[in-house]
UniProtKB/TrEMBL annotation:
Protein name: Lysine-specific demethylase
GO biological process: regulation of gene expression
Residues in JmjC domain copies: 268-431
Record's compositionally biased regions (Polar residues): 1-10, 22-33
């Protein structure tokens, strides 16, 4: 594989809009780092590998439908869920202001990036084989962990994470401001696709810069999959992924910053991702902590080819992604019902990688051709998200994709009542893999049950409010909440029957896991509901 040629100092200053010694350099990148290299890889339209797959559904809610977020998602679910993903185009009048575009933040607030080598997302050798067969400098790898809960044994977990990162992951890149990242992203795309007369200093929303030819979404898509499936050059890009909004800020206005009636409309909207996870009807509202990336949104600042690899959401939650501005984001989705089929297909075609890392898909570092999945009988759907649009992923729906250029998106999770059975399935899978959880499923189930009892009691007293009536629909004989509780009770009874008869059953203290999360020392199963205590140690369960 041909390596990218490094620029001399003079070339870098001439060709790179950021210069040879960038203001916001990260110590992990040397003077010959990616942002200082001359872009020598080029578009090969003849070798395009664009997959031919069906489109995911697109929905256009009316203003009235758009007012109740979770009700609208419930309405479209029967049509959308069997595609895994769908796109929602808000009413034309919905245009929330974006605080990230404010001049001071745009030019001065910095965020970390990771470096993705696109040509190795699918076609790479296992690290053990690679080390034996080729002498190639290995990078310091980081930011591949998917667990958001703090481990009980942090030192042990750090070692395990380090071992995992040494095998698979992305190198840490430079810190950027949004202004600098846009300049580099535009520079890369201009060089790669041979664009001419690009205005590198344009700002988002600037309508004065001259229009120029740019590759279409389909042309970029064909080139992306050529790089992934049939690489001829090394292609590396930056991605500002999993950025905590508590640090950089959210792209949506917050209630604490309301200044006008217009901003209040968007700050309080259910489609504002700062509000979405804990909307009435989402069982995540019974989680007390602000789990980053689950209940608190993450930002994603992308450039051309920056990728999110095949994965499902933690605990098989729903997710909602909003593209604040910039070039489109191309998505691929597989319905949750076919998640095992995707996993089997990837194991079949990438046996060496899975042999070295059996739970490779948990690491979010492996891309795989939709065309191959389709040939294996796995249904794959595609959608192109444009600025101002939402994409929903449904429970256990594998999804992946890439960016067509500079853009900024924000995402968070949600858990309507219908998710509870999916969530229970997720924690059972985690236990079988000895994988840590991100939240307590039983705590959410208990919270939902208590709210259901409250609503049912009030209805019996004649208080038939819309909120109470929604709960009545899930608490009936065939309601989603009833089914989830019955399934959990049956599961618990079966486990109790497996315990030795001489063990004494005790009532769990109310503060058992009030201050410390309790999990099985062996499989990390959450112990909010019940636990077996080790006699010789009061801290091991």
């Amino acid at each position: 594989m041909e390596q990218l040629k490094l620029a001399t100092n003079s070339d870098a200053k001439e060709d790179n809009p950021l210069g040879n010694k960038p203001k916001n350099s990260n110590a992990l990148e040397s003077s010959d780092s990616l942002r200082n290299r001359k872009i020598s890889a080029r578009w090969d339209p003849v070798g395009a590998c664009r997959p031919i797959i069906e489109e995911a559904p697109v929905f256009y809610p009316t203003i009235e439908e758009f007012e109740d977020t979770l009700s609208y998602i419930a309405k479209i679910r029967p049509l959308a869920e069997h595609h895994g993903i769908c796109r929602i185009v808000p009413p034309a009048c919905w245009a929330p202001p974006c605080p990230l575009k404010e001049k001071d933040l745009w030019e001065n607030a910095e965020f970390p990036t990771r470096i993705q080598q696109i040509d190795l997302l699918q076609n790479r050798e296992p690290m053990k084989k690679k080390c034996r067969g080729r002498k190639r400098k290995r990078r310091r790898l980081s930011r591949t962990g998917t667990c958001r809960r703090k481990p009980a044994n942090a030192a042990s977990h750090a070692k395990n994470a380090s071992d995992s990162e040494e095998k698979f992951g992305f190198q840490s890149g430079s810190d950027f401001t949004l202004k600098d990242f846009q300049q580099y992203a535009d520079y890369f795309k201009e060089c790669y696709f041979g664009l001419k007369d690009a205005d590198r200093d344009r700002t988002v929303g600037d309508s004065n810069h001259q229009k120029r030819w740019e590759p279409s979404e389909e042309e970029i898509e064909g080139e992306y999959w050529r790089i992934v499936e049939q690489p001829s050059d090394e292609v590396e890009v930056y991605y500002g992924a999993d950025l905590e909004t508590g640090a950089l800020g959210s792209g949506f206005p917050k209630a604490s910053s309301i200044t006008t009636s217009d901003s209040a409309q968007y700050a309080l909207s259910g489609w504002n991702l700062n509000n979405f996870a804990r909307l009435p009807g989402s069982v995540l509202s019974y989680e007390g902590s602000d789990i980053s990336g689950v209940l608190v949104p993450w930002l994603y600042v992308g450039m051309c080819f920056s990728s999110f690899c095949w994965h499902v959401e933690d605990h098989h939650l729903y997710s909602l992604n909003y593209l604040h501005w910039g070039d489109p984001k191309v998505w691929y989705g597989v319905p949750g019902s076919h998640a095992p089929a995707l996993e089997n297909a990837m194991r079949k075609h990438l046996p060496d990688l899975f042999e070295e890392q059996p739970h490779l898909l948990n690491e979010l570092v492996t891309q795989f051709s939709p065309s191959i999945l389709k040939s294996e009988g796995v249904p794959v759907y595609r959608t192109v998200q444009h600025s101002g649009e939402f994409v929903i992923t449904f429970p256990r729906a594998y999804h992946s994709g890439f960016n067509c250029g500079f853009n900024c998106a924000e995402a968070v999770n949600v858990a309507p009542i219908d998710w509870l059975m999916h969530g229970q399935n997720a924690v059972e899978i985690y236990s079988s893999q000895c994988r840590k959880t991100s939240l307590s499923h039983d705590k959410l189930l208990f919270g939902s049950a208590l709210e259901g009892v409250r609503a049912s009691t009030e209805i019996a007293l004649g208080k038939e409010s819309p909120k109470n009536l929604k709960w009545r629909s899930v608490c009936g004989k065939d309601g989603d909440l009833t089914k989830a509780i019955k399934a959990r009770i049956k599961m618990e009874d079966e486990r109790l029957d497996c315990l030795p008869t001489h063990l004494k059953l005790l009532k769990m203290n109310s503060d058992f896991d009030l201050y410390t999360e309790r999990e099985c020392f062996s499989c990390f199963y959450d112990l909010h509901l019940s636990a077996v205590e080790k006699i010789c140690s009061a801290t091991i369960y």
